[in-house]
Write a structure and sequence with these properties.
A hairpin with a 6-residue loop joins strand 4 and strand 5. Helix 14 crosses helix 22. By secondary structure, the protein is an all-alpha fold. The protein has 3 domains: about 90 residues, no CATH class; about 210 residues, no CATH class; about 210 residues. It is built from 24 helices and 6 strands. The protein has a two-stranded antiparallel sheet with strand order 1-2. A two-stranded parallel ribbon has the order 3-6. The chain binds L-captopril (X8Z) and zinc ion. The site of zinc ion has 5 residues, from helix 14.
Length: about 600
């Protein structure tokens, strides 16, 4: 995972794991009272050092994720440790300047430096970096070998193969086999993860945080407890919409699979949602779509039948950004990115975006398939890339998203502009459907955006309890499923086992990438979309707005991107939207016509099944 030194890499997709860090102050503690001049010199030296370290660390991590071998894992560990030393040393040294009267920028930089963990014992640093590299590699290599396929070679299935089955099959036995097959892999690295949690907490405590979860919650320009309360407030705001969608989906799954597979009340088995983690339900659209009025258009079919290549899909996304007035992607992006799954080696396929040198060398790594979902993901990844390019001119410590939710929201905001009218404009659709099809289009969108909300919330709710010690390794799955039942209304399709590690079957848990960012991003992207549509002078329903080709909206977006992390995030939000609070209202506005429709459907379905 690319992690950039101190910049919590944010985003970087992957990277992000929030930085780690370590090390004792290598330079002897200075005596005497610290001065403003010293603080400024310290920051300049630290940023220069990080510029160099970011580069070599990214290069090592890039290679490790692109060629998973014992050697590349060892190299990633080596550079990971080096980074820990530097960030740890800087975090400890920064404390000396707390309380000085400094410029707002210098004060912010010192604060950001201290949001990293520190492991002063070199053995622990080594163990931490090595566990991190090993967990990432283990997830990337994991495969399910169905009975009769021998010991892991011919016929074994990679995650992507199983995801394709989950997306398309309606045979519950086959779906369950894929689901269980994948979830059997993560227990092999459960102990490693549990050991890693202990080390990570040690590092957070050395910096004065209660545990790593508290450190994560402290990254949002507000106290950790206030952030947890914000998350809960946002969830409560959007929960009624989720409940309506879940109820409708359960009826339709009941109609599809029958009462022996899907109960009419209570949680639904997790293998039936068309997604390995039941986190997005787009693949259920064919069985959920409105009986009349819905368009039968399927972008995936068009991409597949035209044999649209990974490069062409990426070019569609690039053209969207350039239509907003943004630059073309640098030549090195095309030369160095990985866009398709290599046949002959192990790679981490989970999509990610990388700022290798914080100049022109930006890349993505993704195993693109010609599907609607991946068409959206490629816009998501380029959102990270255009953020990197926009804040390049900021000093090292400000080269990051306003908060990590912003970084995740940019590409999704752009993807909200992929409307039928837009698809027609770029030649991917012959005839845009009329207004009667709107509910179907909104439902399609909700299956990605609304279904995702309680998943995104509960991943870190689980981790906060793991990091605080409330949830012990023997209870990992018990707690994971308690949260998933409570928030998502889904249940495990097979009995829970004490040795299980279902959370570890999700990339961001194995790779230790915080997840609250995606929950925030799902709120923010609707706020950004509404603001950009207004900037473009659009006044119709939000779900039909596309800012494609609108340079005025592009300018507004670009101005926020260029701020990077230089100001507290409410200022960045204000710059683009005039608002200074993250708010689910824009999402609720966007889906308002769908909510009315769902509630009516649910009323009719309830009446129908109460009788039977
Ligand atoms: O991990 C990602 C991106 C890279 S930052 C592909 N996403 C989350 C996931 O796949 O779980 C995007 C949305 C949620
Ligand atoms: Zn992302």
């Amino acid at each position: 995972m690319p992690k950039q030194i101190l910049k919590k890499p944010a985003v970087i997709a992957v990277m992000l794991a929030l930085a780690a860090a370590g090390a004792q102050a290598a330079t002897p503690a200075k005596k005497g009272k610290a001065t403003v001049a010293e603080a400024e010199r310290f920051l300049a030296d630290t940023e220069a050092k990080f510029d160099k370290l970011n580069l070599e660390q990214s290069q090592a991590q890039w290679i490790a994720a692109n060629f998973i071998t014992d050697d590349t894992e060892a190299l990633a560990t080596y550079f990971g440790e080096k980074t820990l030393n530097a960030t740890g040393e800087a975090a400890v040294a920064a404390r000396r300047f707390n309380g000085l009267r400094l410029s707002a920028d210098a004060e912010r930089k010192l604060k950001l430096l201290q949001l990293n963990l520190v492991l002063s014992d070199p053995k622990e640093r080594e163990a931490y970096a090595s566990a991190q590299a090993a967990l990432q590699g283990a997830y990337g290599k994991a495969k399910y070998c169905p009975p009769g396929t021998g010991d892991g070679k011919e016929g074994c299935l990679a995650l992507g193969d199983m995801e394709s089955v989950l997306a398309t099959s309606r045979d519950p036995a086959k779906l369950k086999e894929m689901w269980v097959g994948w979830h059997k892999q993560s227990p092999s690295y459960k102990q490693r993860y549990a050991d890693y949690v202990v080390l990570s907490n040690k590092g957070a405590r050395e910096m004065g945080f209660a545990d790593t979860g508290a450190m994560w919650r402290s990254q949002y320009d507000m106290p950790a407890d206030a952030f947890a309360a914000e998350m809960e407030r946002l969830w409560q705001q959007v929960k009624p919409l989720y409940d309506s969608l879940h109820t409708y989906t359960r009826y339709k799954l009941y109609e599809t699979y029958g009462k022996d597979v899907v109960p009419l009340t209570g949680p639904v088995p997790a293998h039936l949602f068309g997604n390995m983690w039941s986190q997005t339900w787009d693949n259920l659209y064919p069985i959920l779509k409105p009986a009349s009025g819905a368009s039968s258009f399927d972008l995936g079919n068009v991409l597949e039948s035209r044999k649209t290549s990974a490069k062409e899909m990426t070019e569609y996304a690039e053209r969207f950004y350039t239509s907003l007035g943004m630059q073309k992607l640098p030549a090195t992006f095309w030369e160095r990115s990985l866009l398709t799954k290599p046949r002959d080696r192990e790679v981490v396929c989970h999509a990610s975006a990388w700022p290798i040198d914080a100049k022109e060398d930006v890349r993505i790594k993704m195993c693109i398939k010609p599907t609607t979902e991946e068409f959206t993901v490629i816009h998501h990844e380029l959102g990270h890339i255009y953020y990197f390019l926009a804040y390049q001119k900021q000093p090292n410590l400000f080269r990051n998203g306003a908060n990590d939710g912003f970084h995740e929201a940019i590409g999704d905001t752009v993807a909200l502009s992929i409307t039928p009218d837009y698809l027609k404009k770029v030649g991917l659709m012959d005839q845009a459907p009329d207004a009667n099809a709107d509910v179907g289009e909104l439902l399609k969108r909700a299956l990605g955006k609304v279904a995702f909300l309680p998943f995104a919330y509960s991943v870190d709710k689980w981790r906060w309890d793991v990091y605080s010690g409330k949830t012990k390794p023997a209870d990992y799955d018990k707690s994971w499923w308690q949260l998933r039942e409570q928030y998502m209304g889904v249940k495990r399709p097979a009995p829970i086992e004490a040795s299980g590690f279902d959370a570890g079957a999700k990339y961001h848990v194995a790779a230790d990438v915080p997840y609250a960012r995606y929950f925030l991003a799902n709120m923010l992207q609707f706020q950004f979309h509404r603001a950009l549509c207004r900037e473009a002078g659009y006044t119709g329903p939000l779900h039909r707005c596309s800012v494609y080709g609108n340079e005025k909206a592009g300018k507004k977006l670009q101005a926020m991107l260029e701020m990077g992390q230089s100001k507290p995030w409410p200022e960045a939000l204000k710059a683009i939207s005039g608002e200074d609070r993250i708010d689910g209202g824009a999402l609720l506005d966007y889906f308002a016509p769908l909510k009315t429709w769902l509630d009516e459907q649910n009323r009719q379905l309830a009446a129908k099944y109460q009788k039977s």
